[in-house]
Amino acid sequence: MSVCTLSGPGGREDPSNHNNVPVRSSSRSLLQISRILFLGALACFPAKINGEENWPQFRGPSGRGHSSAKDVPLKWSPDSVLWKISLKGKGQSSAVNWGDNLFLTGSSDDGRKRYLYCVDGKNGKMLWEKTIDCASPERPHRMNSYATPTCATDGERVVAFFGPGGLHCHDLEGRKLWSRQLGDFPGPWGVAASPVIVNNMVIQNCDAEGASSLVALDLSSGEVLWQTARTDKPRGGWSTPVLIETGERKELVLNGELGVRGYDPVNGKELWFCRGFNGRGSPVPDFSNGLLYVVNGKPGDTYAVKPGGSGDVTKSRMAWHAPRRGGRDLPSPVVVGDFLVVVSMSGLATCYDAASGKVHWQQHLGEKGEYAAAPLVVNGHVLIQSVYGGKTVVLKPGKRFEVLRVNDLGAEVDEVFRSCLSPIKGKIFARSLSMLYCVGL
Questions:
Q1: Mean pLDDT of the region 131-151
Q2: Beta strand pairing status for 422-424 and 427-431?
Q3: What CATH architecture applies to the domain 2-439?
Q4: Cβ distance 254 to 245 under 8 Å?
Q5: Which of 145, 317, 335, 420 could form a Cys-Cys staple with 288, CB 3.0–4.6 A?
Q6: Is the separation of the CB atoms in 212 and 254 below 8 Å?
Q7: Distance (Å, whole) CA 287 – CA 94
């Protein structure tokens, strides 16, 4: 059910107040213009941007964490680190870029100061830094941070989201363009959902332990274009929406507490819902072979859904589901050709046949420990970074388990890495809580 911008206490926009409120006339005009321009302009984004020179949002142009660039390192050692810098505060956002400008976020220990950084990707020089105040910080889980959502940029603007600290848009020189409060985000988990840019809209998942919504804002002005209530009582706003094309239409797909849902990106209308297994829909679904592949944050089956339906499609469009082991999951699933790879937080990797759900193998990764970040796929190789020490296991998906190598940054064994690896202009950027590493050939 679609609703407009809502006002809560203190002038904040609060998704909890109403389910259906008329859109203001100015927002209606913007939405009508967006509808007219949407289909043509959308075809240009996000599949190709300057031949993959830019990694402009969470998990790259497609949101799937795939790169076909031929010059991305697959093997490295401490000697491969071209530079590393210390970042102010702590955070778990991943590096994104436009040209040589890298964008990341951080936070003070108490969450009352949030930081947006612009770093020169050539040498690690800090180009500019902005501080954003947050009077009433959320309560993040011990595995979360106050600066976990990754930025998004369209080459003219960069957008950063800080939960109760707001959504903020700057130009690439660091000049503030607009800010918007989107709620208080109660609960003990914090936020992690990243903004994505679709056409001239910013799409933000505002799941929380209380009232939740999916929101679209005009990228130029920050005005709310549509806001759709999410009524399945999620426990936290972790998953990031991903844009897919089914062949008949485009859909925004978003995992959640009870299952995965598809939305119309033009107006926010919920198109379909598929019930999942056992809750905590934090991982981002992958889309390949005409199917969405979904896992949950808590133990439960891996499943595949055919998008493009209407209403509750749990029985009609779930292609298959298969048990998985390994306990809680944070990493998102990835599909490489005919193979679906799922990694649990404990490091148990499972390879499924993507068409049928048949399990080819289940093996623990060579590096013991915890895994949190979504894998990166580079030319058919799956790169999975460990939380402690940041060692990266390189898998070759197939019918047999094959670890090609384990890459080492030379980080301390207790240094925490929960951000995704970013392949940018022939380099790999790895971010720990307070450091940024640049790895080159």
A1: 92
A2: antiparallel
A3: 7 Propeller (2.130)
A4: no
A5: 335
A6: no
A7: 21
- β 196-198/201-205 pair status: antiparallel
Cβ pair 258, 230 in contact under 8 A:
no
pTM over 0.70: yes
Is 189 a residue whose pLDDT tops 90? no
Q: Which of 166, 221, 174 is nearest to 195 (CA)?
A: 166
pLDDT averaged over the chain? 88
What are the φ/ψ torsions at residue 121 (nearest 5 degrees)? Answer: -70, -15
Q: Which pair of structure tokens corresponds to residue 96? A: 């994104």
Sheet holding 66-67, edge to edge: 66-67, 376-378, 381-385, 392-395, 403-407
Report the largest interatomic distance among the alpha carbons of the chain, rounded to a whole angstrom: 59
Task: In whole angstroms, give the CA distance from residue 324 to residue 92.
Answer: 27
* Amino acid identity at 139: R
Is residue 42 over pLDDT 60?
Answer: no
Q: Are 363 and 310 in contact (CB under 8 A)?
A: no
Residue 367: both structure tokens together: 């590096």
Q: Where are the domains of the chain?
A: 2-439
Provide the percentage of residues in the chain whose pLDDT is more than 90: 74
